[in-house]
Write a structure and sequence with these properties.
The complex is a heterotetramer, with two copies of chain A and two copies of chain B.
Chain A lengths: L1 H5 L3 E5 H15 L3 E5 L15 H5 L4 E3 L4 H13 L3 E6 L9 H14 L9 E6 L14 H6 L4 E3 L4 H13 L4 E6 L6 E5 L11 E4 L4 E5 L3 H13 L5 E5 L2 E3 L3 H11 L1 E9 L4 H13 L6 E7 L8 H4 L6 H12 L10 H8 L8
Parallel strand pairs in A: 2-3, 2-4, 4-5, 5-7, 6-7, 10-11, 10-13, 13-14
Antiparallel strand pairs in A: 1-8, 6-12, 9-11
Chain B lengths: L5 H21 L16 H8 L7 E5 L3 H6 L4 H8 L23 E5 L5 H14 L6 E6 L6 H12 L4 E7 L2 E2 L2 E2 L9 H6 L4 E5 L4 H16 L5 E6 L20 H9 L2 H8 L2 H24 L16
Helix pairs in contact in B: 1-2, 1-10, 1-11, 2-8, 4-11, 5-6
Classes of the chains: A alpha/beta, B alpha/beta.
Bound molecules: thiamine diphosphate (2 copies) and magnesium ion (MG) (2 copies).
Chain lengths: 358, 315, 315, 358
């Protein structure tokens, strides 16, 4: 209590509250920052992450919109071109498919196509759904589509600390930033300093040190990978877990350095793998290490199917601590018989506070 | 499509209401593995419209699709099994509540992305017209869906080609919690749609027979090739946007509004027109059907894990 | 924005016409490294509208953007250099004819994807309103653009927030070669837009002064916060959709139509109102400007190869 | 002349004419096949590839549309669900960004999400622009976005023969097929049998045999790679050039087999490389060869910038025979000084019949 009082600026904050605090702080210091989107001002407040903003800053700066994702994206782009800093929020990333034209043909290209005369300091916040029957159209994490196209930054903070720091960086960035928030992360918390701070894009974080294998995990998969890291300790495998935090820009050097040591690279993404972030990371690492430093590589991610609604199938759709641990084991001990972690430990690693409905 | 006798209409209204009430009772047990968007209070729209259709007409609904699905004659057992995430569900558990489908009974697949089904329904109508069939397609959607650009694109194209499609906007004045005033600059939806040379009609009295009259005229026009029709039917969502409960304690709307609609509950009104005995026997048979559907869902197996990668591509 | 005297209007009409005529002469030499969508015959719209604007109002055009760019006062030299793909182009050669921009002179970036600039212009207007400035944004687009869903979404949102934007539809009856009858089920565009509580006006007589009157009233309303205005201005595209030539030999339209519009050529009409001497001196100075612009473009360097990866991201 | 008469079914046909013939033949045998899109019935006839169809089959089967890509895609999907076989044409692939919601949330998922009750036999023809100031918004080839998502097939025929055979396969396929036609390919011709035939998806074609390096080239890059293959012969490098033809399904086995021999893999794509088809192919090959068969890998594609309009910059944007040859040389002889092909030969390899405007 007294230690908390001493260092009041270091509280435990939930993921959504961290985003809220970042937004609030940036709106307080910069009148150009505003929030726009469906349902940003209702009592659910985007899983609480916009709670209180409309009361504090008024409806002109927390703008509820009609169901018009395409136009509203264009509106946000136009406002950004005029010097404002919109934060456009989508309750599901799948809905970005309605505004790809504005995001890719306009936001990503404007600065280049107009040779620097215009820029688009726009944050696009998107929540990636999972479980409780989210199904095919409420579960997609489409970051690789944005990684593919020059001109958009992409961040996917895996914890509350990064969420706050990345949000402040995103708001201050002069480019469009797609900000990816996996739904389950809203049930996680972390120590979050009270003062505004930034997490710099393009710095891969080593979240767990290790010697035998490098696991690069993206977004919520960082949590799963950390649990897998515990599980493989049982069989004396020391796994290094890296969190790139930002996918554009991507700090590949830290990944390459780690893999040079461990000789094994496993990428675990919260998305499909084909042409995904994992394909990119594998390809980049292998290109950069060259033929002389040959390494073992593997990718995990969504099963390459549409996401099913029923939990009976959905449970096989995502990588889990168990499946990640098993894959890591296979890579480290390719010739030993297959191994799966102790059922009880695996179960514990599996647990999540979340339960449906959304 | 659906029995257009008073009994038939009542049966349908009652079936939908009672099924959803049971769904909302079961929901806290977590047996239903899917978000549910209930139609309670809005059933009269789906029932009124489908009661003027032919058996082979096509119905397209939304994620709030239980009513349209049941009114069109979709299998109750399979719907319940779908909500339970079971192998015998109408989509083998892969769709859940938001993606109902029953092509045997002419229910096109529902979608969880607002507005997405509108042009798809128009395309289905293009095909039925091209095949020279006299099937029409009814496309249900909410007031929120009319804010999506694709709605206007679809109107223009459907009218250009005089396609046999009846657009039905279920205007419950809300999109999640956003009141229509925050989303529509005017209420002139019908006038707007008319500028596409589409017959329109607004049904504001919440009366299923007024709606049927409108729908009947529209459907007649559509079948003789006069092109699409559009009905805006006012309604009220009695429960929360998603989930089994009421939410009048959330402060975004007033229970007084609900009361007006409850007083005008079409299920009760139509029920009152029936002979008491008849009504009781319908009610009883519906309870049996629902119990049977729940038993069917409970008894159904979970989908086999190897179904995960089945049907990604069609053969 | 632009001199609203008769001389000013004539100068602008003549500048655009003559510049585009020169562009079409140069085109076969392949010095222009870009598809060109000429405005010849439609210049009066951009000129009429911009002549009622303030200096700091914002103009948003399309891939058929030479006229809007020049009428708004965009740099002629830089436009010509841009068409030539040179480093001194308004977009350093990166944009070409379809992506003109001149923020110094309040010309927002043009886009080659039809309709894309409409919500962007609305967003710019949101910002000018929020900043309490009395700038308005004029958004030009073609009849084809009104078929894209984003057009309606943009109207609704702009009107909901009463944003200071003037929508100007240049209705030349064609989208590439598709006549409007194959794309619009009715011509009731203004009526449709009015259902969004937006003031509208159709200018059908091809007269720049009628257009200016309409625009003046609209702009007045917009500036006092009454929200967006909408003008549909009928026009005719004298040249082919893209490229420097006529295309009446292609059979999709009739030269007789052209004749009517040529007889009503606003450049000539306004020119005739001027004192002969005055007109000659304007004409001469325009020729000088164009020659200078072409020289500027010719003399400008090719962009340095290392510009290829500059400005992907803003610093 | 007489040999031509004998085998009249083997004519030289331009790329666009091959597509036209396939369309015509399929429309003739199957009344469910129809064409829809902007400008499909005008005198330019989509670079000639729909020439005469409206006269032959009438406006009900060659449907001109308003500018409403999103709705028209939905319309095509709905018609396909009802058993028809639409061919929806877009004059530029960039415009697909307007209809990603329909393509990804609906077409790709319908068969799975409705557990086989519906299917979407839809062909989406897209032309990828290049040169003459096409610039940022008329030059994108976004195939990797479609490769990423389960449920859509993707083909990119590199020559007139494959164009016809793939088009017939695509029309008969019961799934959505994105059919990619690079603009410059319209100036190429090939021997094309007159009778209807199919080119099966998922069969990588070896278009040039070689021993020292495997070059996998996609779409129009097959032509550039074949020219590069000639250029490197000068320095005694024997390059094997593979054309996957279809990217979904992707025949990786043929690629792996080739690379196992040559030990070198260069993928040349007509698209950006990050999270692109090249990343996928590199990652797959390396995963499947494992650590013991280490190989040298590299990717080429668009420069990772927005596409500039001016030819002065655009010429550095695309891989060319010269840059491909130089990269291949570097991979085969990493320690020798850099080499560039003879200027005259390079120039000849560079030539194209095409010149603007579109
Ligand atoms: C394109 C899209 N945007 C946003 C959402 C999130 N969402 C789900 S339902 C809904 C409200 C739709 O309102 P309405 O169309 O009136 O239907 P209702 O729920 O009232 O029946 C919204 C915004 C979505 N599913 N799809
Ligand atoms: C979204 C989109 N679809 C199609 C095209 C191809 N295209 C270029 S111009 C054009 C016609 C546009 O017509 P309109 O808006 O009336 O403008 P106009 O050319 O007549 O000035 C079309 C279809 C495009 N550029 N963008
Ligand atoms: Mg509603
Ligand atoms: Mg036009």
């Amino acid at each position: 209590m007294s230690s908390q009082a001493k260092n009041i600026s270091n509280r435990i904050l939930l993921y959504g509250d961290a985003i809220l605090e970042a937004t609030d702080q940036e709106m307080s210091v910069d009148p150009n920052v505003f929030v726009i989107g469906l349902d940003v001002a209702d009592h659910k407040a985007i899983l609480g992450s916009t709670r209180g903003l409309v009361e504090k800053f008024g409806p002109e700066r927390v703008i509820t919109t009609p169901l018009s994702e395409d136009a509203i994206t264009g509106v946000a782009i136009g406002a950004a071109m005029a010097g404002m800093r919109p934060i456009h929020i989508h309750i599901r990333m799948d809905f970005l498919l309605l505004c790809m034209n504005q995001l890719i043909n306009m936001a990503a290209k404007a600065h280049y196509m107009y040779d620097g005369q215009l820029s688009v300091p726009l944050v696009v916040r998107v929540i990636v759904g999972r479980s409780w029957g989210q199904g095919a159209q409420h579960s997609q994490s489409l970051h690789s589509m944005f990684m593919h196209v020059p001109g958009v930054k992409v961040v996917a903070p895996s914890n509350a600390f990064d969420a706050k720091g990345c949000m402040i960086s995103a708001v201050r960035d002069n480019n469009p930033v797609v900000f990816i928030e996996q739904r389950h992360l809203y049930y996680t918390d972390a120590l979050v300093p009270k003062h505004p701070y930034t997490v710099e894009f393009g710095k891969t974080r080593t979240v767990g040190k290790g010697e035998d294998i490098t696991i690069v995990a993206i977004s919520a998969m960082v949590i799963e990978a950390m649990k897998a890291r515990e599980l493989v300790e049982e069989v004396s495998i020391s796994a290094e877990v890296l969190d790139p935090i930002s996918l554009v820009p991507l700090d590949i050097d830290t990944i390459v350095a780690s893999v040079s040591r461990t000789k094994r690279l496993l990428v675990v993404d919260n998305a499909w793998t084909i042409c995904g972030a994992g394909a990119e990371i594998l390809a980049s690492v292998v290109e950069s290490l060259g033929i002389k430093n040959s390494i073992q590589v593997s990718r995990m991610g969504f099963k390459h199917t549409t996401c099913p609604a029923t939990p009976a199938l959905e449970k096989y759709f995502y990588p889990t601590p168990v499946s990640i641990a098993a894959r890591a084991y296979e890579m480290v001990w390719p010739n030993k018989p297959a191994w799966a972690p102790d059922a009880v430990k695996a179960e514990m690693a599996h647990q999540l506070k979340f339960r449906g409905p959304f | 499509m659906q029995d257009e006798s008073l009994e038939g209409i009542y049966r349908s209204l009652r079936l939908i209401r009672r099924t959803e009430e049971e769904i909302s009772k079961i929901y806290p047990t977590d047996k239903i593995k899917s978000p549910v968007h209930l139609s309670i209070g809005q059933e009269f729209i789906a029932v009124g419209i489908t009661s003027v259709l032919n058996d082979d007409d096509i119905v397209s609904g939304t994620y709030r699709g239980h009513a349209a699905y049941m009114a069109a004659g979709g299998s109750l057992n399979k719907m319940m099994a779908e909500l339970f995430g079971k192998a015998d569900g109408c989509a083998g558990g892969k769709g859940g509540s938001m993606h109902l489908v029953d092509m045997e009974n002419h229910v096109l697949g529902c979608s969880a992305v607002v507005g997405t089904t509108i042009p798809v329904a128009v395309g289905y109508a293009l095909a039925t017209k091209n095949k020279g069939s006299d099937q029409i397609v009814v496309c249900f959607f909410g007031d929120g869906a009319t804010e999506e650009g694709v709605f206007f694109e679809s109107l223009n194209f459907a009218s250009l080609l005089k396609l046999p499609v009846l657009f039905v906007c279920e205007n419950n004045g809300l999109a999640i919690h956003a009141p229509i005033e925050s989303r529509w600059v005017t209420k002139a939806l019908c006038e707007r749609v008319e500028t596409f040379d589409i017959y329109t009609s607004q049904v504001a009295d919440g009366n299923i027979f007024t709606l049927r009259d409108s729908a009947n005229k529209m459907v007649e026009n559509i079948r003789v090739g006069k092109g699409p029709g559009f009905i805006e039917c006012m309604a009220y969502r009695w429960r929360e946007h998603v989930g089994p409960n009421e939410d009048f304690d959330q402060g975004y709307r007033d229970r007084a509004e609900l009361r007006k609609w409850v007083e005008n509950d079409q299920m009760e009104k139509v029920g009152e027109m029936l002979d008491e005995q008849m009504r009781l026997s319908i009610d009883a048979s519906i309870e049996d059907d629902i119990v049977a559907a729940i038993e069917y869902a409970e008894a159904s197996n979970w989908p086999d894990p190897n179904m995960l990668d089945k049907n990604v591509f069609a053969g």
